Amino acid sequence: MIISKEEYLNNLLDSFCKYEEKLNILSNKAYPSDIVKKFIENDLKMIITEFKKIAHNDLKNNDDFFSDKTILANNIWDQGHLQRIAKAVANTDFKSHPLEIMNVFRDLIKDIEKNDFEILTIPREEMNFSFSEIWFKLKMFLEKELNMTGFTVNKKFIKLTFPKNHKNNLLLSGIFFHEIGHYLVEENNFADKIFQKIDFNSDDFLSLRKCIYANKGNQLGQVELVNIFRRCYLINWIRELLSDILAVYTVGPGFVFSMFDFVINSTNINNFYNDNLSNTCSVSHPRLSFRFNLMLKALKELKIYNELPELLKEKIESYQDAYANSNNQQQNRSGNIIINNINYTVQESKFMFQKLEDIINDLTPDMLAESKQLLGEKNIINKNKLSQAEKLAEQRIKEVIPPNELNNIAADPIAIINSGWYAKFLYKNSLKKRVGKIDGKNGDYDLNLLINDLMKYSLRTSRIQRRWQG
Amino acid sequence: MSIISKEKINNLLTSKAENSLTITPILDNEKQIGESTIDLRLGTKFEVDMRTRKPFFDPLSDRRPIETFFQDTYRNFGEKFILYPQQLVLASTFEYVKLPDNLFGIIFTRSSWNRLGLNISSVLQSGYAGVINLELVNNSSNPIALYPGLRIVQLILFSVDGEEREAYFSDSISKYVANSDPKLSSISEDEDLQMLKNKFPINS
Fold it and tell me: Is residue A438 a part of any domain in this protein?
């Protein structure tokens, strides 16, 4: 060994002590929820104290070998689980907490998930959203492998990152619903369940063999094919599409318009002018026109599409057409994937992507039906919520009144979110006339700001009103 | 000019006519609407003034925006907010108010809060739309616990005689339009400041 066991352990203990110092600082911060403080003071400190004890005991021990416990603690440390949790906690605070929309998610997840949870919101500079659980699996691992008991926070910690500049942009909140979709897909092994429904003996599936080369003369049978697509392309696409369906089913057109806003935001001006909108497939995502098509199917399946005002339907169809007719060319690449020590080369091609879309098309009825089941009827958007959204936009936002209630009854949060989009598309001109401040000097910025302010207020007060009236 | 009575307030609130009175949400109509006043509740967001390194706020200087002198915070309904003696805190009503063009309003602290050293008074222009900003200052020598959701101010409405005027929120120079949170002072946007800068430069 180049360095001694003692040197290694001293180094490890030093890292643990620095982490403990960081926890002491973090425990003095104010958080949107008291649970976070409790989590740092009790659970994270308990883990690091235990890790320090393990390393210290090993240091006193004259054996040449590390103890099993030290190896486990070291592996957890090396994998960065604890550091990631501390980083998430350090980056969450009152100021960056998008309170109003978080309460909508909180109520939604509480209704679907059995486990208790806490959401840590983390603002980021870049235009990126993500949603993941960071604590529960580690907790279960520590309980099982290191016999650690006495954790006080027995709930999931969901890390939600979002673009800092869009903290109060409720018009973009549909994207959050897509990210919650990812979380639900992950927590319920939803993508795997759908993947199992593929007919692995079908010609479509077996024809994918043409796109894969097994290096060093290894066999490429049905089993290998299933293993490959369980790791890339198909499984990822299913994940993405399920998240889209879950978002459409909860927030309806509100998600579709957020998505349009989001993709336009990331489109280069040259691509926009040359009808070259990015509509390509990748290992992680299907092409956008395929996604839009599925979103439209989901809206139609809910029988709410025809309820939309003509202008909104035209908007959806024009986006779908623009992407479907894009001149954007697919760059076909090849990539390697190693499964059971065998290296496979996947050659992307128009043929392969077409087959993948055909396979997914066959799965669509199952994806739609099971998404419905997962959400439960109460959490699925329906004609009533949309009709409420339409009234809220016309009777309230258009009159510069927040869409928080109708006839003294607190409005539904999903109706509130959709009412913002209705108002933006249908009443832009009347709002401009009514509110002199929206003079167009800043484009739609002032209009969006006004609508977002009214929606934010409404989400906050309608929740209180519902509780008061309940 | 006359004070609007309970009956008329209720008629205006239930009227379907465009440009009528809106106060939303009224959680308890019976308690909140009095003979000639409307009780409004304390909202959930607060802007608390802070001592900073800079000795003072200067509306003529844009080097240190007013936002840096305040910290925002939130309390749920029923959750305590402590207001310390002589501390300035900007809060707002829970209710959003939109006045028609022929009414203007005055708000006062409810007398029970007045007696604890909390005095608020403000004028609402015709056509105003938004939550009402409440400049909270504790004039007593003891801290006061405030709770969002409590009725804190009363609104008195007056009719305005004369020809129809442009609604406050349609006036593009209005500084406070359709606010949904407590709004910090927009004194820096005052047009007189530009006049002072241009006509009376300090080094002339």
Answer: yes
Check whether B173 has a pLDDT greater than 60: no
- CB contacts of B50 in chain A (<8 Å) are none
Q: Do A453 and B179 touch (CB under 8 A)?
A: yes
- From A99, which residue of chain B is nearest by alpha-carbon distance? B74
Does A184 map to a domain? Answer: no
Number of domains in chain B: 1
Q: Residue A103: closest CA among chain B residues belongs to which residue?
A: B76
Tally of domains in chain A: 3
Q: Which of A344, A361, A379 is at the close of a domain?
A: A379
Is the CB of B24 less than 8 angstroms away from the CB of A95?
Answer: no
Residue A25 lies in a domain: yes
pLDDT value for B50: 83
A436 to B169: CB separation less than 8 angstroms, yes or no:
yes
Last residue of a domain, one of A330, A347, A379: A379
* CB-CB neighbors (< 8 A) of A465 in chain B: 25, 27
Domain coverage including residue A328? 191-379
Contact B94 A401 (CB under 8 A): no
Q: What domain range is B148 assigned to?
A: 6-199
* Predicted pLDDT at B45: 94
Vertex B70: Cα angle to B69 and B72 (nearest 5): 160
Segments in chain A below pLDDT 50: none
Q: Does a structural domain hold residue B1?
A: no
3-state helix, strand, coil in chain A (%, to 5): 65, 10, 25
Identified catalytic residue from B35, B47, B135, B164: B135
Establish if B147 belongs to a structural domain: yes
pLDDT band at B175 (very low <50, low <70, confident <90, very high): low
> Is A185 part of any domain?
no
In chain B, which residues have their Cβ closer than 8 Å to the Cβ of A404?
24-25, 96
Taking the C-alpha atoms of residue A321 and residue A301, their distance in angstroms, rounded to an integer, is 20
pLDDT digits (tens, 9 = 90+) for A154-182: 888 888 888 888 888 999 999 989 999 99
Which one of B149, B172, B180 has the shortest CB-CB distance to A437?
B172
Looking at the fold, whether A360 and A396 belong to one and the same domain comes out as no
B123 part of a folded domain: yes
Amino acid making up residue A470: G
Does the beta-carbon distance from B180 to A436 stay under 8 Å? Answer: no
B135 assigned to active site: yes
Q: Between these two residues, A3 and B108, which has the higher pLDDT value?
A: B108
Find the residue in A nearest to B169 (Cα).
A435
Q: What pLDDT, on a 0 to 100 scale, did the predictor assign at position B168?
A: 65
Residues of chain A with C-beta less than 8 angstroms from the C-beta of B98: 399-401
Which residues in B138-164 are b (16+ Cβ under 10 Å) and which e? beeeeebebebbebbbbbbbbebeeee
**What six digits make up the tokens of A263?**
């993709």
Residue-wise pLDDT for B122-135, tens only, equals: 999 988 999 999 99
As a 3-state breakdown, chain B gives helix, strand, coil percent values, each rounded to 5, of 20, 35, 50
Beta-carbon contacts of B119 under 8 Å, excluding residues fewer than 6 positions away, are: B109, B137, B139
Assigned domain for B114 exists: yes
